[in-house]
Amino acid sequence: MSSDVTIVLGGQAGQGIQTIEFILARVLKRSGYHVFSTKEYMSRIRGGLNTITLRVADRPVAALTSHIDILLPLDPGVPEHVGERMTADTVIVGDAGVLLAERGFLEVPLSSIAKEAGGKIYESTAAVGLLAGILQGDPAIMRDYLREYFKGKKPEVVDHNCIAADLGYEAGRKLHEGGSLSWSIARDRQAANRILVSGAEAVGMGAVAGGCNFVSSYPMSPSTAVLTFLASHDETFGIVAEQAEDEIAAVNMAVAAWYAGARAMATTSGGGFALMEEGISLAGVLETPLVIHLAQRPGPGTGLPTRTEQGDLELALYAGHGEFPRVIYAPGTIEEAFSLTARAFNVAARCQVPVFVLTDQYTMDTYYDLAGFDLDAVTVEKHLVETKPGYQRYRLTENGASPRGVPGYGSGLIAADSDEHDEDGHITESMAVRRAMVDKRLAKAGLIMEDPVPPVLTGPEDFKVLLAGWGSTCQAIREGLERSGRTDTAHLHFPQVYPLPHQALGYLEQAEKLIVIENNATAQFGRILTLHGGREPDGAVLKYDGLPFTVEELADAIREID
Fold first, then answer.
1. Which of 96, 262, 276, 373 is least buried, going by the fewest C-beta atoms within 10 A?
2. Angle subtended by helix axes 334-351 and 199-209, to nearest 10
3. Which H or E element spans position 328?
4. Under 8 Å CB-to-CB from 173, ≥6 apart: which residues?
5. How is residue 114 annotated by DSSP?
6. Element (H, E) at 366
7. How far is CA 64 from the centre of its chain?
8. Looking at the whole model, is its pTM more than 0.90?
């Protein structure tokens, strides 16, 4: 009895590996297994070599493993592409036409099965059946889901897909029962009732829960999935989704939408965010709320546009000319991608500052099953006032946040200007007013810190070694620490990376050794800990080849810490 099996699907773009993964994951979950999936792919529409990793387990799993139990290649170049992940125990299954020159493999004539079912187009569905048979998924559930998935097709197409899946399932069942593949995973009845949500969907759902009714973007991988998700639900949730002509227009649209009373988000990546910097500074001086979702990818320049990295933390931290406060959230779980995005809208509205939600390609393209989101914890806080005659948009206040009105709500007039301005919003060059306005804007830092998101400690409270991480490294660090067997080490995950939560200071002081773990080359978060936490890290575990951390490599790195 195995508790955890890792499957890797590989092939060229356009060969259907995403279809296999999408259907298989849902069939296995409905059959009572827990699933996790993520992908790595090249920047091309056709060709190249792409892979999908699917973990199937008897318990919830949420991190990438490097080893491969079952490899299903649809292209002869796949085994070499993933060669570093293969072990002597890796089992390769597939068509001899693909694997003819490969080391030992279990032949399953998928192309012949597809032809028997009605044509080569059904090869992907046959592969679904094969893997479902190997892992003993429920064949009735498989057929029901296929009919649901292909319900828009002609009846004969649906039937052919079911036949291909059944034939593939029988081939997989024979491999399992014949002893060639002996994996058997215990089922969990609760798994079938859980939901499968990707990081991109979670950000989109969080925006909806936070009251978002306007999203603007110029499509850019890997953030585009958030735009398309919200656009596909625009009528259901009353969202205006605007694909702008460029990122400059996108951020200015979001600023203008907030000014008019909407709750807006701009979503972008790397180079697109760089173009938004002037608009971010505009929001800073206008004291207009703004939510920006930044899905990181490797730079500089175009870099690796479809890979992952945590290289834009300092870009978000220092974006925009001049001095003004901001908040940066970095979800480490899909649950946090939902809750922090929803929270971003309330914090932006309450503090009248830009709020950034930092994700990355790994977060966007990863999903796993979860119980659901805590909707009772989500509220929509508008923080608007009805204006009266003599209303001052920039009235000086102790906490820096002036009563915020919007045009048309009340009888008062609203003046806003990107030049320095007085309390009425009129341009000024008075040095005394300038100092007062700078102090007013910077005072919001205290307002922000009245309700920070605290870091999350995993491991012993009497730790000596502290692993500090942020964003998408969270789940891999947690499982890596568990596998390492260390009892003197804990993990501190930061969902809010700036301003640094005051709750972190005690943990940082307690650590005899502080190690930062980041998906970048220069330990950017380590510098934040030094500057704002008063504790310089003693070491760093860094990765910057475009791929996320795996559980095994972090377990090894944690064991090696002196």
1. 96
2. 30
3. strand 327-329
4. 133, 134, 136
5. H
6. none
7. 13
8. yes
Query: Which percentage of the chain shows pLDDT scores above 70?
Result: 99
155 Cβ contact partners less than 8 Å away, ≥ 6 residues apart: none
Cα–Cα distances (Å) from 128 to 22, 107, 110, 139, 185, in that order, read 9, 16, 10, 11, 17
Distance between CA atoms of 394 and 60, rounded to whole angstroms? 50
Tokens of 471: 């964003």
Residues β-bridged to residue 369 = 196
Q: Which domains does the chain have, with CATH numbers?
A: 4-193 (3.40.920.10), 197-377 (3.40.50.970), 384-451 (no CATH), 456-559 (3.40.50.920)
DSSP conformation class of 296: E
For residue 268, list its beta bridge partners. 294
For CA atoms 499, 515, 503, 383, the dihedral sign is positive
DSSP 417-456: -SS-B-TTS-B---HHHHHHHHHHHHTHHHHHTTS----E
* Structure tokens, 90: 């890796």
What confidence category does residue 98 fall into, taking pLDDT thresholds of 50, 70 and 90?
confident
Spatial separation of the C-alpha atoms in residues 357 and 374, rounded to whole Å: 19
Both tokens of 54, joined, read 């699917």
> In degrees to the nearest 10, what's the CA dihedral of 533, 328, 368, 217?
-160
> Environment class of residue 83 by beta-carbon count within 10 Å: exposed (0-12), middle (13-18) or buried (19+)?
exposed
For residue 232, what are its two tokens? Answer: 């596909």
Q: At CB < 8 A and 24+ separation, what contacts does 411-416 make?
A: 411/387, 412/387, 412/388, 413/387, 414/387, 416/259, 416/286, 416/288
Q: Are 69 and 24 in contact (CB under 8 A)?
A: no
What's the pLDDT at 103?
A: 61
- Give yes or no for a contact between 397 and 365, defined as CB atoms under 8 angstroms apart: no
* Residue 213 exposure: Cα atoms within 13 Å on the Cβ side: 10
| pLDDT above 90 coverage of the chain, percent | 92
Confidence class for position 1, pLDDT limits 50, 70, 90: low
Alpha carbons within 13 A on the beta-carbon side of 235: 1
Alpha-carbon span 223 to 356, nearest angstrom: 13
- Please provide residue 547's backbone torsions phi and psi, each rounded to the nearest 5 degrees: -115, 155
Contact by Cβ (8 Å): 215, 209: no
8 Å CB contact between 307 and 339: no
Q: 455 pLDDT band (50/70/90 cuts)?
A: very high
pLDDT at 100 over 70: no
One-letter amino acid for residue 481 of the chain: L
